[in-house]
Structures
1.
Amino acid sequence: MATNGSPEIVGVTEAFYQAVFDTDRNRAFAVVQQALDQGISAEELVFSAVIPSMDRMIKAVSEDFNASLAQHFMTAQIASQVTDLLLSKFSQKPAVLGRVVIGTAFGDLHTLGKRIVIGCLKSLMVEVTDLGVNVSPEKFVDEAQARGAGVIAISAMMVHTARGEQGALAVRELLAQRGVEDRIKLVVGGAPFRFDPELYKVVRADAWADDGISAGRVITRFLQGEVL
Amino acid sequence: MITGMERLLAAVNGKKSDRVPVFCNLFDQGALELGVSLEEYYQRGDLVAEAQIKMRARYGYDNVWSLFYVGKEAELMGCKEILFAKDGPPNVKDFVVKEFGDIEKLVIPDDITAHPAFEEQAKCLKILKQELGGRYPICAYLTGSMTLPVLLMGMEKWMELLFWGPPELKNLLLEKTSDFFRKEIAAFRSLGADILLYSNPYGSMDVIPENFFHQESMVWMKRDLEPGGMAGVVYYCGMARLNGAIPSVIKELGIGTYYLSPFDDLAQGLELVGPQRLSCGVINDIPLIDWSKEEIRSEVKRMMEIGRRSPRFLFGTGVMPLYIPQENILTMLEAAYEYGRF
């Protein structure tokens, strides 16, 4: 059996990272299957290969890797699908890092960014509830409270859905009214926030992420109790 | 008095007019101008034309638009439902392609000008041509074949099909959307549009990997554009950066005008486009909502100082959200007229 840091798992991790980096889904699955066949457990693969690879990818994307949107999408999907496969092989239900509810802002039907974030978070062992598109502020907060989520993530691709009265501003208002601002953080993302990096303050979010992959880092830091 | 068309033609020919041409994209603001809802406004071509004419006259910029909203193209291909907002552009609500099997059933109209969804656009264009033709350039917005599937099935499903789906299905859809594009550009040309904005985020390496751009995007862009030629065509990637694509587009397509992204390095963009072709520097107009007068003037000044180094330069805007206060639009335009003066 390979152990964390053993040559076997290091080799698997590197091969998996390269496959994800190259957005080669078949190769990523082949690497994982080969490792399973060699007797490396699903648990080890998730914690020693998938999560470190996603951490490395997040770091690369946020620092200097000039990846395209398609690469972000494919990376997140590959990591998420591999994680789903491995989770089904876990001997017992794994502990999650935290819980997040995510959706697109009221009036917004764009799903791609949300899906990238979901894929990224799932591969980091975050339990994600997808509320879908065109989500009302009440639904965001109701679901977050019902599920014990530490973060509400809102994706908005248009200026009026990012800034509108039924978007993040209304969610913030509800969080304040219900007295749960210290327990539930509000993270936003989408094109308007890239065009205006100060916009997240205007809509009273706690943080924003430049892209779906980087959102993984922002959200997991909140879930781990960091003050950003 | 000099017209917008004269300013544009001077820039096309590398000559100086009184100032740098200014292309301002006001769309949803037309409803405010006429005091009607966005939903009512976009139902009628005469209202869109009237607002375009009034806004151009009031603000003094150099172009008008025959564009309603981007989802119009989806309607021409069968979309039945558009989600209207009170404070922003409409969205496609009903995707024509709900599952991959719908691609085979997708029908591109033989004559898009006979389609009911085109009727009001044609009416708008006819009025603009009658009132401003030859004096102010009339712009049309045409989505490229590789981007049109986003309007038909959403970006998420399209990404899956594009990169991981059956190649024959992907190619079938692209053939259909490319056929649509060819018909649409021919229709707008025949109705007298002067400037044909070829909008294709999938022609930007911000959206797709570089090798994919060369191996796939370029093939479909050629198919879209070559039959009708490049006259009046402007390369635009929907606010995504295009500097990285410019050398290949010049070499392989020969497009003569480039509508840069606010995220592109403007000086580098001008250099890549070169002095023989036209560049449009585009202001990042989303922060215009909150910027102070000084911030707006400073950004316009910066852009004009770079842009005026090129003999063929335009100043342009991007999406111009409805949230931008009118006084900020005026501040931006006055600064453009002032700092763009020759």
2.
Amino acid sequence: MFEVLFLQFLNGLDKGSAYALIALGLTLVFGTLGVVNFAHGALFMFGAFCAVLFRQLLTLETVTLDPEKLSPWGAPVEIRQPLVQAWFGDVGAVLVNYSVPLSLLLSIPVMLIIGIVMERGIIKHFYKRPHAEQILVTFGLAIVFGEIIKAVFGPNPIPQPMPTELRGAADIGAWLGMQPNVITYPLWRLVYFLFALGVIGSVLAFLQFTTFGMVVRAGMADRETVGALGINIDRRFTIMFGIAAVVAGMAGVMYTPLLPPSYTMGMDFLVISFVVVVVGGMGSLPGAIAAGFLLGILQSFASMHQLKAFFPGIDQVIIYLVAVVVLLVLPRGLMGRRGVMEA
Amino acid sequence: MSELKRGPSRRHVLRTGLAGIIASGVAPLAFSRGAWAQEFCNNPTGGTVTFGLNLPLTGAYAEEGADEQKAYELAIQHLNGEGDGGLLNVLKPSALKGNGILGKKVQYVSSDSQTKSDVARAGATRMIERDGAIMITGGSSSGEAIAVQSLCQELGVIFMAGLTHSNDTTGKDKRRYGFRHFFNAYQSGIAIAPVLAEAYGKDRRAYHLTADYTWGWTQEESIKNATEALGWETVQAVRTPLGAADFSQYLTPVLNSGADVLILNHYGNDMVNSLTQAVQFGMRDRQANGKQFEIVVPLFSELMAKGAGENIKGIFGTSNWHWNLPDEGSKAFTKSFGAAYGSPPSQAAHTAYVQALLYADACERAGTFYPPEVIKALEGFEFDGMGNGKTLYRAEDHQCMKSVLVVRGNENPTNQFDVLNVFKEIDRETANYDPAIFGGDLGAAEPVPQCR
């Protein structure tokens, strides 16, 4: 039984990593700009499609027809030659193999630009509007973004292979001195967890230990006073929106081998991530991270058949049940601050 | 002399009798034939007749939906006398002339069902009530099929199901106005269990992951019954939500459950995701109970095999049809479809195409679009040349009885389409079963409900 529970715990950490990364970005935007951004899930999706685009570019092929061989319907058989491998040989093959992690390099500038354009172009016009209007406009944006992706890449999920070296499962049980093959876990999921820890740590360190981060934190606490000191806080907040988009995008890129990207993935994650933010406490970065992992772990345990035998469908509703209980006991969420989203 | 009063002459009796027969028998038939024109839903009055295509173009089964759409477009071209004629040339017996149906050109309207039953039902309602569809067809999920079939029964419109594999479609939820060409989960169990026992032995412990809706339930039950009858033990059967995407939390308990076989009762993108993730968890490289751990996917298609890539190699499943079958019908359809779209047809495309042709042929044979007559023409109809050998549209449950394929992921594909092999063909007699075992009631064909 220990092995089963431990594996579900690992699963929870893995799921929680994705929830925490998206919730982190959501909270950054809400904490700095005061905007409830329902298009944040779409940024996660854009990141995932950066990986798709990057791989499609790397796997562009030349197609020639072989008139000697015919298909069952009588057409000449196509001979496909990948361009990158033809040009760069083994290096090209390595590039294709590592397309997912390498596409982080594409996603960072792309997501930064998307974030800044989105904030300057649309979001800034809604700063002083009620939250309901912000939700409406960002939700509309999310639908538009989803439809753009559907029009360009089609409605079907597009699988993204992980590097061959990371395809297997790690024998964690053997690492811990147990029997081999008792606790095995996919390597890429461990990579994703470590990646999430790295990104979360970097964002927190950036806010904590840099002058830029200090100004942003000061702005989050008292925007007017920081502005009165002659600091252009709006520009810094715009950059924070861009950084939040980059965090969501990177999370999306690295999630693609676990979940083939589709135009619906933004919405799928958005709802859960909002619950995470609410449970963690609106505007609280540590709250969002803690709630992300907590709900990921609970969702994972709720999927066990031993539990489902007593509570059918519990895996589908567990996070909402937890949200209800948390909000009844702690109306501001786990680490919510007084005055945030309160009349 | 008194004049003899003569009785009626023989000629008079014959003439009167004949007139009586005509008056009481034939003439009313002629009138009622005219009356049908006014008394059924969407009776085509102009020069065209409209099919309603209910296709899952988004959602978990979207790939199948896209392929079905291609097949319907091809079927409609062929029915209208365009293209190479496809299976019109090989269907036997056939009343199709290649000039539409009963002289009317076939056109279509379509709706994206999103792989959701409620959306499918709403789409079918719209196509019947607004667009005047004479027949509804399509779908890649049994949930959709059962919902739409029930609607069609209420509205008096024939439903020619697309890909639906649940026993319930022609079992407990069967309807007089619904017809299924595709095989079912029970037949998958009959076909695959002996192959599994031969390949993996009779001492196996199976763990089922099952899509949580009608198809998943009936497939789980059918495969459980068939494998347990051969000596396998079922360790656990766990339901997973349709379109779950991430199955990791359902897969981890498999590792320490004592099972040595994982049976994935998933289809479409769900199967691609669950199989891929199972392989990521190292299940294909694993030993359990002193045996090689195995994965079985009782129903899969070439579209799913392409999506799953390397992971599908060597995995057993069943299929309704496969494009590289050697018969004339399969060759003709593969040739038409490949020439039109540059890839071979899937089993979803095949069943969609065949259903469109069978409906058209039934109308031609009935000489009318009046649904009860078309239903009579389909019930008990035996045909050949459509790729599955001699096939019977069984009157008792509207299930097509034909051969079933056991397929296996190709270990050494020679091209991008060569993703699975036909491992064994199970003949119609072996795949046969008593329609009474699933219960249900077809209901009446008449009086025909009025849709508007």
3.
Amino acid sequence: MSHVALESVFDVTAIRRDFPILDKPLPNGLPLVYLDNGATAQKPRQVIEKLVECYENYNANVHRGIHALGDRVTTELEEAREKVRTLIGADEVEEIIFTSGTTMSINLVADAWGRKFLQPGDELLLNEMEHHANLVPWQQIAHERGAVLRFIPLTADGRLDLSALDDVLTDRTKLVAVTGLSNVLGTINPIGEIAAKAHARGSLVLVDGAQSVPHGYVDVNCPQIDFLAFSGHKLYGPTGIGVLYGRRRLLEQMDPFLCGGNMIRRVRKESSDFADLPSKFEAGTLPVAQAIGLGAAIDYVQGIGFDAIAAHERQLTERAFRQLNEIPGLKIVGPGVSERGSIVSFTVEGVHPHDMAELLDRRGVAVRAGHHCTMPLHEWLQVTATTRASFAFYNTLAEVDALCEAIQYARKVFRLK
Amino acid sequence: MSDDLYDDHILDHYESPYHRGHLDMPTIVHEDENPLCGDQVRLELLIENDRVREAWFDGHGCAISQAAASILMKEIEGKTLEELRAFQAKDMLDKLKIRLTASRQKCGLLSFKILKTMIYTLDERKGQGDGSDGA
């Protein structure tokens, strides 16, 4: 797509007007350059207004009150669930479980599936680029069940080394847990190829979609996967709401995760029967307004369209690559621009990432610094921390330039030539 | 106190640290890290007659954490353990001569925290329960 054609279909100025926070000056008076979208995305007023609408007009608990508000809020929540189903291409709405976020979604599977189906000696296939949320729950359940963790090696440029997949994927592999898009390297993983090989071996596939879903890598049937976990707040929705998608057959076989209200059919003094999907995995009061807000967020991104979003984010990422690579001592981690999403993490010789983030902040540029909840990956990279810029569709090419200028400023403060 | 986090005082210590390295026979060694940032500092002290004869550090991390360690090493050499017991977090922040946000105070106080742990350990080693630590 040519530059001119793209600008004509994608009006970033108009889009930015939907995000109230983006034109509020910072305490130091500078405009905000928000490049920490991988941590959490900003919210369009359509989402904020939906939350207000919910609290002002039909706040009630769901699936409980036999009254007008209860009916309305339940309808809104179930509409949001249907929007999630459509977004990820799931067959049935009962396969959409509302959780508090990606972390809870993965813990749910590790616990409810792992405890029931993992046998001593079974294998879980992971890799070093996973976020702690897609690593630590598996460590814990493997330890409890006597299962073994195996790891797909990484290539030198930070991709999964699929040439080694046949070695690490065995007849004992019960589940492959893999991120759709690395939150540090930016690598887009070839889920289709991994899923095909895993399924051929009789293994399930769980995709951590925290980073990939907001950029449109979402369909659970193309390629076919078994579990998908993601968060609302990185998808321009509220915090506190997330999704677990699971195939109906699997969810039905699994025992409950959390127990209490809403997830039961019949409770006796000594034992209970459990509710049907999805309630079986939705114990207690859901984050109701947040779920409804997530529905509004899905409407919003689908209104822009993932193709347009991807094209714009690609422009941002390509420009960032070109300009960052010209900065002396700056090293980008991860693969080339054609194999990554809109995440660029880097180190700058002579400036520690935390000092870098602090100095960028003084220029109004918000990034993240640290290990980004991927300590094994940073060990693999042989650095203690990186600085990460992560772009969203409301970012502009001028903001990429502002990032690079701020990095040059930081280098100057540190007396680097 | 400067609002400029990266003034010459901090950068000079960061670039040319005082006593970055190791002792042959330290009396006590302790290290800790700041898991949020990944800052890591290790302190080594040589204590003679309840006085710090030499103080060395090693580690890696942001300029604040490393400069603070260097500043602390220079500060405590020659001090008695009694004086170090009285040395408080505020004193440490004053020595840095910059104003730190709450999150960066963790960086600025990492080596101070390690020093305090060392003092407790030394006191315990001595079985010092006689109230002489100023309690």
4.
Amino acid sequence: MARYTLQRFIYMIITLFIIATATFFLMKLLPGSPLTNQEKLTPEQKQIILEKYGLNDPVPVQYVNYLKNLVQGDLGISFQYDNRPVTELIVERIGPSAQLGFQAIVFGTIVGLLLGIFAAIRHNSAGDYFATVLSVLGISIPSFVFAALLQYYIGVKLQWLPVAFWQGFEYTIMPTIALSMGVIANIARFTRTEMLEVLNSDYILTARAKGISQAGVIFKHAIRNALIPIVTILGPMAVNLMTGTLVVEQIFAVPGLGEQFVRSINLNDYTVIMGTTLFYSALLILVIFIVDILYGVIDPRIRLAGGKK
Amino acid sequence: MEKVLEVKDLHISFDIHAGEVQAVRGVSFDLYKGETLAIVGESGCGKSVTSKALMRLLPTPPSRIKQGEILFEGKDLTKLSEKEMQEIRGAKISMIFQDPMTSLNPTMTIGNQIMEVLLKHQKLSKNEARNRAIELLQLVGIKNPELRIKQYPHQFSGGMRQRVVIAMALACNPKVLIADEPTTALDVTIQAQILELMKDIQKKMGMSIIFITHDLGVVANVADRVAVMYAGKVVEIGTVDEIFYNPKHPYTWGLLASMPSLDHKDEELYSIPGTPPDLLNPPKGDAFAPRNPYAMKIDYELEPPMFKVSDTHYAATWLLHENAPKVEPPKVVQERMRQFALSSGKKGGEFRG
């Protein structure tokens, strides 16, 4: 298991390096520069600033400098916010985003699993159809529509929860629910399919032939095996959540990273864009890393295969 | 001899979109203490459905037991609740399945899978159950059981997994062991080992075995009695000698003729012409008639009853009626019967295909 984990970790570092490189060169292809909108500056002044930030150096030199700084954890300084370090900006904004994302994925996974298991056990009954309709709705309706509906009915009409802003736990409930709808729907759909397949497999018949009760068969034999493929979709789901937060944060006026990211792109704030992209990527890779480890925990076959290869 | 299990006129149907598939249409047989009864027949003849029905493992719906009784220890299994069946499954009647590669849970250790059945049916502590699991693995010939119980199914070969499945089925000393094609998915050398193991264990533990197979070579090797099934019915039943040396039903002749043999290298292997009937609309009369070269007019109109050949031997064919013309089995079958007679007394693996 340790060897498997280490191997995954090395892959993770390599992936991160590739993403950093790609982001850097893509950024160089972006039209304009951070100074495009600064009409007050004379060409000479612009030259001085470009020189100061090393933007006049040949691209390979810039790339090497960038990597050097990156290894030391330095993401550079922002052009738009008076030379504040990008790291500081990210740290300042990450709290609300992370909390929302985390709450949404935990809540969504738990509800989705329950719904999916319920649907599989009540296969082809009214309960199953209800769960299926619910997940189709959840998948096809984007999170910002849920966000607006929640705001209107629960926030404005019923006045149960605050409509927007970020001043305590009750402010997180509606954005969390809006974000988790997609997670619930996806997980429920997958869980249902997987459970149905697992429940039809030979080893479930063996378990039943041993005299194990229906509940025992489901909890001891079926769920763990059904979880294996579900863990796979947790990775992409996390990405969905990240992009989902961009919009949902705007709607609920949450001071998160997403809002900042969008503004930086409009302003060509190279370092912030690169820093945030890299940060998102690192987060994603971390999620995939955790998913890989989870695989090993759930499925003994993977644990060993990883060690041998 | 003491009867352990009695199946009486069992009918099982599957309700599907197109209608009612009558998979089992009146099967009756007895199982005696300590014997091995083989149920043979080609795919779709209802042998697996029958065996699963004995343990009430068929999903309902779509399946349903239309009529008939399964008597075991004075109770009719078809009438028991799911809860009552759970007490019987794995404890008094247990089952071995065809494919050892898929019949073990891949995410559970072998030890836990064996202990599970012990903890369910016997009042054992976890420690006692573990010790018993080690004993069972030893019994089925797995080396280093102390180490092996901590391993997962993927760390075992196919033959070893089937041994584990057998250990699991034997855990609670069942009265009846149902083996549904237990060697079909294994290669021939492993097949022989598993069959030897099963015979050996039966001698030690004295349980009755219902052995489902389509391989007559295996039947000759393990069975005391044989029931031949066709289209959801038992068409001939008798001791293994009666079925091999004195078969009466044309379908049994066909099965015997289509067994590969070492002595007939150059001949083309016989196969029964045609296909089994569609059990969605079972034919009138004898279901085998359209494939039967000896079919008479009555075969298409009236189902033959079970004619008695001896106290232990019955066959459902009009050829046994006193007014029927005298028909000898085909030459190839007579040849086979002679060979079987010659090699009797040294029953072993030599019939295996």
